[in-house]
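It is worth pausing here to work through a concrete case rather than discussing structure prediction in the abstract. The textbook approach is simple: state the sequence, then state the predicted structure, then interpret. We follow exactly that order.
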Amino acid sequence: MLTQHHFLAATLFGIAVLGSLSLATAQTVGPNGEAATPSSALTLTDAEVAKLKEGKYSAALVWHTSSDFISAVTAGATHEFDRDGIKVVATTDAGFDSARQLNDVETVMAKSPSVILALPLDPIGSAKAFQAAKEKGVELVFLSNVPAGYKQGADYVSVVTDDLFQMGKQAADALAKSLLNKGQVAWIFHDAQYYVTNQRDNAFKKTIETDYKNISIVTSQGIADPARAEEVAHALLTKHPNLDGIYVTWAEPAEGVLAALRSAGNTKTKIVTLDLSEPIALDLARGGNVTAIVADKAFELGRAMAVAAGYGLLRKKAPAFAVAPAITISRQNLAEGYRASLNREPPSSVLGALQAGPSPSGGH
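Step two, the predicted structure:
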């Protein structure tokens, strides 16, 4: 999920994690070009679980922020750690502050955890932040990002993230379906060099251009600050008032695009975006402009990270880069989508809108 949990990390990581990615790649690759392994391949046998239980290991979760996404990742990790007899001794929230993350690592190290799960906030600062843990042999498993200079298998066990290409591809397929495979669309992409958003955005573009010959991307607009999305969308809609659809890089800027459409009285143009947010899900539930949301399985990300930590403790070779599945969420499976992605029920506003049925004026 990209909401705030990736945005600042994207800004901080910049070129450092872009690696040697090809924008034409047809599958998800890691921050340094690693081939992806499905998260489902990360498993432990009963004998391995028994061995972990004998070790009386402990874990610390060193997060960059707090959110529904992180709550779901934490739930997935905790569920697996409980199964493996690994006690979670600390959970921290750095508030998107890399200096605070360094302090958090120092604080949790006082509890001598056997493993640490974390999303590093910036490459240089994170390399320093996790140095002490690395030197003490703590098994490190990272979410989406990797500290500068760290080598998989030597300095950390694995990195886990979304199936980035599939998220973009499924967004293209969903928008095309809603447009009956024809029309003019806009592509609003993340204007920063960051492998997570770059792959998702470019997968959408490539899928439209390759698979849907009767759909034209008639305008493209990069966005670096999600707070400017409404302003950007107003300008875009002034030049292209008859758009059939808009792809927006993730849910937070999509909220701004939705606001711009409402301001223009536009009930026709369809939006597809990535990641769940209450305003976007509510519009989808009401039958508004939002036609689909593609999300990751956050609970599964946490489970896979915890299993990877078990690999490290067992000295079992782990995949360098693992990805959790993407899911396409429509109005018909919105409640199920919340459960599958975030391991929680939708907000009461969304449930109420689903029960009420589509609004005659859509989401407006």
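Step three, interpretation. The two ends are 26 Å apart (CA to CA). The chain has two domains: 3-163+298-324, 165-295+326-356.
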